[in-house]
Amino acid sequence: MQKVTPQVFTDTTLRGCNPSMVVTDAGVVVVDTPQLPTKAVAMRQEAEAHGEIRYVINTEHHVDHIFGNYYFRGAGMVVQHQGVYDNFMEVTPSLDSFAYAAEAVPTDDPEGEAIFPDRDEYFADPNKGHVVFTGDLTLRVGNHTFELLHTPGHTPGQIAVHVPEERVVFTGDTIFSECQTWLMGSNVTQWLAALDRISALDVDWVVPGHGEVVTRDYLHRQRSNLVDWVAAVTDAVAKGWSREETVERVDFSERYPVDVGQGYMMSHIQTLNAGSLWDKITQGRPA
Ligand SMILES: [Zn+2]
Q1: 3-class DSSP assignment, residue 281
Q2: Residue with the larger pLDDT of the pair 185 and 23
Q3: What's the pLDDT tens digit per position in 192-227?
Q4: Torsion over CA: 268, 273, 276, 279 (sign)
Q5: Cα separation values, 52 from 64, 75, 77, 122, Å
Q6: Cα-to-centroid distance, 92 and ligand 1 (Å)
Q7: Domains of the chain
Q8: Ligand 1 mean position to 154 CA, how many Å?
Q9: 104 and 36 in contact (C-beta within 8 Å)?
């Protein structure tokens, strides 16, 4: 894994989120788990080489942040916001989370097929939250503080994990650094407030949900991505464009590539982002 500070590690090279860990003098705290099976197993080994895993914290409920929890069963307590717990591995008409996790394995982790559970095995113990909270929560582990800050917007249960002693914050997908932002299912108004909250932290490093580690300077670029998407679709609605016309014409694919391993999803992301914003704006719901 990449060293962010002497005690903080992350991996920005995997398909899925940036799984991370903080090594304290009283054990290891994991922040999000790798979606791909062999990557999850390898990260657990690497973490345990530094000490006992005390907590596994999830920053959001999206599959690529939580599926790997399965491979961390028995390794400390899983800490989740209520909003993550309630939506954990959700099955909706448009998304079967388990199928989504399974789909990436043959192409991105063929050796993982041997350790990929069947659906019943998985749901018997997916390693869901043991400590579930609302609002914010502070954990102390050895000489380190973990401030779990509720920063909804990208998802309802979104949190940022601020570790002041390391001058680091892990934001989950409140930040997509230099890659496409997924904003279907999001509340952009809340998301902008989340960026304000994070920008008030005195940190040197921002570990995003996807893309390279950045500094606080990047926050305004994430803000622009959100504001520009909403402005473009608001403008489309004002011009009377239909949903189909909006999806066809509003496109930010030139701005950034898609994160590792998901390049084939570029037009899917544009369609989901434009379509979901059009739905919300025309229905008078918050964007
Ligand atoms: Zn996400």
Answers
A1: helix
A2: 23
A3: 999 999 999 999 999 999 999 999 999 999 999 999
A4: negative
A5: 24, 8, 11, 24
A6: 16
A7: 2-220 (3.60.15.10), 223-282 (no CATH)
A8: 7
A9: yes
Q: Which run of H or E residues covers position 149? A: strand 144-150
- DSSP run (H or E) holding 1: none
Other CB atoms within a 10 A radius of the CB of residue 14 amount to 23
Q: What's the pTM value of the predicted model, to 2 decimals? A: 0.96
Closest CA relative to residue 150, chosen from 27, 60, 55: 60
CA of 168 to the centre of ligand 1 (A): 20
**Taking a C-beta distance cutoff of 8 angstroms, is the pair 232, 250 a contact?**
yes
Distance in angstroms (rounded) separating the CA atoms of residues 155 and 32: 15
CA of 186 to the centre of ligand 1 (A): 9
Alpha carbon of 65 to ligand 1 centroid (Å): 8
| Cα-to-centroid distance, 173 and ligand 1 (Å) | 5
pLDDT tens track for 10-23:
999 999 999 999 99
pLDDT reported for residue 185: 86
Beta strand pairing status for 205-210 and 77-81? unpaired
Who surrounds ion ligand 1 at CB < 5 A? 62, 173
Cβ 64 vs Cβ 31: under 8 Å? no
Distance CA 281, CA 238 (A): 10
Residue type, 233: V
Question: Whose structure tokens read 């391993």?
Answer: 261
Predicted local distance difference test score (pLDDT) of residue 93: 85
Q: Ligand 1 centroid to 182 CA: how many Å?
A: 7
